[in-house]
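Aggregate trends can hide what the representation actually does to any particular protein. For completeness, the protein is quoted in full, as a sequence line and a line of structure tokens.
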Amino acid sequence: MKVIIVGAGIGGTSAAIALQRQGHEVMIYDRMRENRPVGAALSLWANGVKVLNWLGLADEVAALGGRMDDMAYLDGHTGDTMCRFSLDPVTEQTGQRAYPVVRADLQMLLMETVGLDRIHLGRRVVEVRQDADSATVVFDDGATDTGDLVIGADGARSLVRDHVTDVAGGGPRIERRYSGYTNFNGLVPADPAIGPADQWTTYVADGKRCAVMPVADDRFYFFVDVPQPSGTPYDPADGIAPLEEAFVGWAPGVRALLDAIDPETSFNRVEIWDIDPFDTWVRGRVALLGDAAHNTAPDIGQGACSALEDSFALAISIATHTRGVEDALRRYERIRTERAADLVLRARARAHETHAFDPDLTQAWYDGLRTEDGTAIIRGIVGNTVDSPINLGAGLL
């Protein structure tokens, strides 16, 4: 069977590997001209790592991952420790260590595993067509490619999604929803002045968050949240000026982080949006995957993991059902929509709690952190993985 995938991100490439391992011919097309992912790094929790293990990449992913043994919250103004605890219970309960990884490194690993000759960059899909026997993508230069099915892994602004929801025929156009804050992220050298090299360290105050996670090669992935209106002006020439303004007078560890950022080397500014959950992921021989189906705010670290779950569920459905492509895709849709929607809403609720959109709620969270022994936070992290299809009923103890 020939599979066409639109989008060479984490979801598209992982789906390609899974389907290739089943013997299918896969072609990937992406409008990007080089491997330049949005965002410096990502969190791979147990559910995402297990999918990559299943794809045969366990050793490679472990080599890319930072060693994150502990987690701590610090008062953003004083630097005082609010709570600190081991993440070992997460590993023990899920059966898999979590790995923060550099997104570009993971994406390149996945692309190389697919085979760079199967991935065509600089190809923009402008239309999707299908009939009873095939599905076709049309490119902006008028060329086409036809396969047995098309997977739309083309991101939050997905063109394939418009075909699936039949916008041209009067169906709904799925719109993004602003999450209320801007995220700044990048990579810096690990520095004990910011936090221990094996710890996820987060400074919080005033609805803002300043965090670092360890990644490979003795580096920190930093991600900093600033609540602000969508469309707030920013000139890249200003570098970290918005962070200097937002974190005046914060703790020495935050100052050390700001001093370490090199905007010319690694600095991204991303407004955070999500999409209201919807149930129509499949139309005939065309299906959605990843952000095209469930664009999720990063507040629970499950965006990439959810896309990896999609890849697992899609491949399992295609491998185990023999009533045709359309039937297998409908069963994939049935497996994934409720679970993915739950993660979108969990992340949205988390963003509301942590960014002072309700000041009393956020203050209550801060107060709770000062008495936290890790039990509640670990319960939340593990709870995000409980219903993952990769567990097959045996993933948690």
Remarks:
- Residues 2-66+97-176+276-353 form a domain with the FAD/NAD(P)-binding domain fold (CATH 3.50.50.60).
- The chain has a mean pLDDT of 96.
- The first helix runs from residue 10 to 21.
- The radius of gyration is 21 Å.
